[in-house]
Amino acid sequence: MWWIIWVVLVVAAGVVLFVLLRDVWRRAKAVGSELARAQSVASQLSARAAELQALADASPAIRPVDLEDVDAARAAADARRAEDRIRKAESRARREVRDAAVRDRWMRDGI
């Protein structure tokens, strides 16, 4: 009679061990796939960082203003202001076109 109890206990222990090992294996596979995805994201991040560094290296560095030559500094500031005015005017024109299209769509839809 005792041998039946021992056989049942050993089989039950084997089943529990199988279930636990299967769960550990599945979790290990999930961790492996997440690590692969993390490696992919890290490589994309490093590529983007290199791209941004190249853009930063290509852009002109900000230089201090030489106030010894006031006329040249004033001319440079005026040139920057003129560029800003042009950029703002272009932005304003794009915004007006977009707003007009929205108003037309609203009028057409009866809103």
Description:
The protein contains two helices and no strands. The protein has helices at 2-58, 70-109. The radius of gyration is 35 Å and the shape is elongated. The protein is mostly helical and 111 residues long. It folds into two domains: 1-59; 65-111. The chain is 87% helix and 0% strand. The model has no long low-confidence stretch (mean pLDDT 92). Keywords: Coiled coil, Membrane, Transmembrane, Transmembrane helix. The chain crosses the membrane at residues 6-25. Residues 35-99 form a coiled coil.
User: Strand pairing plus helix content: what structural class?
Assistant: mainly alpha
Largest sheet: none
Rounded average pLDDT:
92
Q: Tally of extended strands?
A: 0
- Whole-number tally of structural domains: 2
| N/C terminus separation | 86 Å
Q: What's the shape?
A: elongated
What is the number of helical segments per DSSP (H or I, 4+ residues)? 2
Low-confidence stretches: none
Order of helices and strands: HH
Taken as a percent bin, the fraction of beta residues is under 5%
Radius of gyration: 35 Å
Helix content range: over 70%
Keywords: Coiled coil, Membrane, Transmembrane, Transmembrane helix
Coiled coil: 35-99
Transmembrane segments: 6-25
